[in-house]
Amino acid sequence: MRLIALLCLFSLAVQAEKPSFKKWKTPLALGIASGITYNPFAKKIQTKIVAAGHVTPLDDYIQYGPAAMYVGLNIFEYQNEEKAFDQAGVFLLGTGIYVAATHGLKAAITEARPDGTEKTFSSGHTATAFFGATVLAHEYRDTHPEFVIAGYTLATATGALRIANNKHWVTDVLMGSAIGIASAELAYILYPKVRHQWQKLNRFTITPQVAPAYYGASMSIGF
For residue 216, which phi and psi values (nearest 5 degrees)? Predict the structure, then answer.
């Protein structure tokens, strides 16, 4: 299943539009690194370096930091309903992709976490954080680069704390970050097509009409 996850990342990168292929280099590199660190030697080193026990619950909260900044900036810099609709659409589509990917892998791979509990692969916390940071970067890298830096800093800290808290192996965190970034990139590629199909299916409209002498409504159906 780990190999399948890597192949899926590679397939998505190859099928992406050429101008955006460079955006897939990071998730591909992280996915490959995840495969390389999946071995007993890497786990042995991590076990020796990371002390047993739970350090802090902070990772449970900061995973949502990048997404919170994204939503906050959208509200603060509200432009028009259509743009807000598109941004929400990309965000919801990407969220569905990374949630399905991480939970699917957890269901298929019941490997134990460093603390002994099950379903370690891949890190959902890290996927959540890196997805939010990547969406934030797409929308605000030119206008608010400081928030983009903060978003990726929080995402990296989330992954590091998952390891420090003995909740995940390094391989889990690397794949989680790859999934989060890839989900955001895929959402931006797929959303225009999804919206186009949605608009084709929703050609029924009702327009209210109000005048001094009457009121009513007009109905139109597109074919």
Answer: 180, -150
Q: Are 94 and 131 in contact (CB under 8 A)?
A: yes
Please report, for residues 32, 84, 98, 118, 171, the alpha-carbon distance to residue 10 in angstroms, rounded to integers and kept in the order given.
10, 31, 16, 27, 17
First-to-last alpha carbon distance for the chain, in angstroms, is 45
Residue whose token pair is 């969220």 = 95
Contacts 24+ apart (CB under 8 A), 10-19: 12/182, 12/186, 16/185, 16/189, 17/189
CB 143 within 8 A of CB 132: no
* Other Cβ atoms closer than 10 A to 160: 13
User: What are the pLDDT digits (tens) for 113-149?
Assistant: 998 898 899 899 999 999 999 999 999 999 899 999 9
* Contact of 28 with 13, CB cutoff 8 Å: yes
Of 148, 135, 147, the residue nearest 98 (C-alpha) = 135
The radius of gyration of the chain's CA atoms, rounded to the nearest angstrom, is 21
The residue among 145, 123, 143 whose CA lies nearest residue 133 is: 145
Query: Residue 167 gets which letter from DSSP?
Result: S
Q: Which long-range contacts (CB under 8 A, 24 or more apart) does 40-45 make?
A: 42/169, 42/170, 42/171, 43/114, 43/169
The predicted-structure confidence for 200-222, as pLDDT tens digits, reads as follows 665 544 444 444 444 444 545 45
